Amino acid sequence: MLTLDALNVSDRVGPVSGCLAAGRLTLLAGPNGSGKSSLLLATAGLLAAEGHVQLDGERMDLLDLTELARYRAMLVQHSVLPAGLKGYELLALGIQGEVSEAACEQMAWLSGFLKLDSLYARPLSALSGGEQQRLLIAKTLLQVSPRLNPSGRVLLLDEPLAGLDWQHQLTTLRLLRHYAGLGLTVVASIHDINLAAQFGDDIWCLHQGRLVAYGGPEVLTPELVAEVFEVKVKLLEQDGQRLLLPE
Ligand SMILES: Nc1ncnc2c1ncn2[C@@H]1O[C@H](COP(=O)(O)OP(=O)(O)OP(=O)(O)O)[C@@H](O)[C@H]1O
User: Fold this and answer.
1) Which residues form the ABC transporter domain (predicted)?
2) CA-to-CA distance for 180 and 202, rounded, in angstroms?
């Protein structure tokens, strides 16, 4: 479990306190500039912040970089990719230690979901934005895949669905749920509130740097959406599914 204790990045986000549970997929919603990326980066230890983040009771800011890389993986928004690198070389960066048979099997497993086979041999500079994103997602997942890294406990992803087509958005969300099911704490920012409601175990909603709502998908009410996103929506409910439709 990740515990945020008054985490604050001046003028960007916070103070935010709360628990991000292991075994659950928490989706961060909120408009542009509401602080999602800043919160994720500060949680990952990649952005200086006041307050503390504890991982199972251990202060993350006291861990060295090698320990951090073992415990948590983060997909950052707008990754700068080395142009000469090929697809498989990017993926290999997610593997700690030698590329073992188990690592190859895990890569093949992820490739099946994210359709990476045809991307392996190509330079990253020759791939589309969505193709690059699929490789980056796989690399991030590999880093904390329990079979390869039993110490892996946390997955943080900033807008993993950016640039993905509909099929790969759904595949990615299913993979995130799978990793949560393996016991990891999985946290991702997302702009589609209906996908957030469908796939998130927990929702955190940020507005102007503050955590204004958290809980199950039912926290995404038309009232909250109107206040935070300034969009009028109506709620449709069918077969236990909730859909927020713009009016
Ligand atoms: N490098 C920076 N230096 C100073 N302020 C920043 C920096 N990056 C972001 N901000 C500001 O911090 C606030 C939160 O930005 P952040 O990127 O965390 O929001 P976000 O919710 O991830 O937005 P988006 O949905 O557009 O990605 C915004 O007001 C933004 O202008």
Assistant:
1) 4-233
2) 12
